[in-house]
Automatic annotation (TrEMBL):
Source domain of life: Bacteria
InterPro entries in the cross-refs: IS402-like_dom (IPR025161), Transposase_6_like (IPR052909)
Insertion element IS402-like domain: residues covered: 13-89
PANTHER family for the chain: BLL5188 PROTEIN, TIS1421-TRANSPOSASE PROTEIN A
Annotated spans, Disordered: 114-140
Species name: Cupriavidus numazuensis
Protein name as catalogued: Insertion element IS402-like domain-containing protein
Amino acid sequence: MDVSGGMARKKINNELWKALQPLLPTVEPSPKGGRPRVEDRAALNGILFVLQTGIPWEDLPQELGFGSGMTCWRRLRDWQTSGVWGRLHLAMLTRLREHDQIDWTRASIDGAAVASPRGASRPARTPRTAASSAASAISS
């Protein structure tokens, strides 16, 4: 039986894992004991499975061995907050580009990130656009 519902996805291979693992923080087990932490490699595979298939986090099949959808979601949240996810994402994209594995036919560009042509009229700055511009500058 295909537990992925027909949505097969390759797991991270050993070569890629060797490049990604050093980017992850080391987490010491709790001195209180408790349930063992899901391995980072399994959680990353779960995160990528959900992002690629678009299934809800809670529908991540346990049979895949990636941990629960909530565990994967929390790991993504923690990695995003600490800046780890950005480094992982960049490393994965770099590796995919090196191996010509990016499907550019499915790529899109955000027009807000492209400079307007010379001579184009510029909309008036309203308080809302000014705040939006400031937020963009801060997050960059």
